[in-house]
Here is the input.
Amino acid sequence: MKLTAARSSLQGTVPLFQIACSCCVAFGLNIASMVLITKTSSLTLTVAGVVKDILLLVLSALLFGTFPSSSSLIAYSVAFVGLCFYTFLKVNEGKSAEVSNPVSMVL
Here is the structure.
């Protein structure tokens, strides 16, 4: 009798192993974010977050058939246009730096 009572009281708890794994993954994510920011910039982390959100939205629609509201679609569209514009500016900035510095073209 005591065994079944103890078993039923544990059904709603989360095992310590799952909590430890979750903590390790969160710690790894924080380290990865720190390395990304130190190697690039905080804006790059933000752009990566926007790309992640868009990919999650598309995968959610494809796999589970869950479609976002129209206001969410507008918001993600604006974020995507901003991402494309940022990428365009960065690519053109790199090309103009190469053209203005002929020594880098020789090396």
Summary: The helical segments are 2-9, 16-39, 42-64, 70-100, 102-106. Residues 41-106 form one domain.
